[in-house]
Specification:
This protein is α+β, with helices and mostly antiparallel strands and 112 residues long. The chain has a five-stranded antiparallel beta sheet, with helices on one face. It is globular and about 30 Å long. The protein binds guanosine-5'-monophosphate (5GP) and zinc ion (ZN).
């Protein structure tokens, strides 16, 4: 899995932050002036697999690292968007759970 290999450092990425079980790095194809992905270092295909207490803890850690990265990159005051595409209709293309942190421009609603 490509994101597992980014987590181990086997594939290069612009890492911006780490926590015990999560890592944040720049998206290869940014959709906003700031576009970071936050992943758990252990493989989970999607949010749909993040069940039970362990899943809740992992989601909490991923979200918490997203909050920290957004603040460190100066997005907190103006705001930003978290997105977690899940499954086919969710538009997920990489099947390792990841949180998009998007900021630096006005976001619109509804999403596409
Ligand atoms: P999804 O569509 O699954 O929600 O998001 C996958 C994201 O991963 C996309 O925004 C895509 O640009 C990004 N991505 C795919 N391959 C790589 C890669 O090798 N390195 C990095 N940094 N981002 C990637
Ligand atoms: Zn993986």
């Amino acid at each position: 899995c490509i994101f597992c290999r980014i987590a181990t450092g086997e594939i290069p990425a612009q890492i911006v932050a780490r926590s015990d079980h999560a890592v944040a790095f720049r998206d290869l194809s940014p959709q906003a002036p700031t576009h970071v992905l936050v992943i758990p270092t252990s493989h989970l295909a999607s949010a749909a697999e993040a069940t039970g207490e362990a899943g809740a803890a992992l989601l909490g850690e991923v979200m918490a690292l997203g909050v920290r990265v957004a603040a460190e990159l100066g997005l907190a005051e103006a705001g930003y968007r978290f997105v977690m595409n899940t499954g086919r209709e969710g538009g997920q293309t990489v099947h390792h759970l990841h949180l998009h942190v998007l900021g630096g421009r006005q976001m619109r609603w509804p999403p596409g």
